[in-house]
Amino acid sequence: MVVNVFGYRAVQIGLPEWDLLSANRMPYKDYTHVVAGSAQSSGRLTLVTDPENLPFDSQSIDLLMLPHVLECSTNPHQILREAERVLMPEGRVVISGFNPWSLWGARERVPGLEPLMPVAAHLQVSLPRLKDWFKLLSFEVDRGRFGCYAPPCLTEKWLQRWAFMDSAGDRWWPVCGAVYVVSAVKRVVGLRVIGPQWKRKTKHVRRRQSVVTGRHSGF
Fold first, then answer.
1. Methyltransferase type domain: from which residue to which, for each copy (predicted)?
2. What whole-number percentage of the chain has pLDDT above 70?
3. 15, 21, 48, 49: which sits with the fewest CB atoms below 10 Å from its CB?
4. CA-angle at 56, arms to 50 and 61, nearest 5°
């Protein structure tokens, strides 16, 4: 999703230990940590920031990565507003999140079971909800994909037993993957200024002289 995105500057918010921009060829890349304190060492310059108040100028970023950032915030819509602010016109945002309508999400809602996912079920942002937010902020969904169809397991043995579900998931239950990744483009409607027509072409009409003749009658 990022390999053919062109521009000048790309930013990844969160998970700086994973270089999700490695396939992109932009000359400048920034990686930020979204929690207070020092960031984990990744061999790159890493900023510590609040995703609800990004320290970037308006319309200064061409590509913005948000891996599992919305669901880690109590105000995810504000994060999208910030994304819309800092992105250039026709800039792209790529977001990943957990799908609440999956086997993973269903397990999290079963009473008595210890949660396995790092994000609470009530904080997970479903894809239809995210698409509604995109429309409100003039984002246009470009592409997306689901993944991780096997049920959550704690051992490698059971992961191997359920591996067939990952290969069949895209075909039989494509919207039930535990994780989704979606890409959207910031659209800006162009304005056309209509001013007064100072110079108008004058249409010259040739007039013909008409001579009316008739009988002269006296009174």
1. 46-95
2. 81
3. 48
4. 115
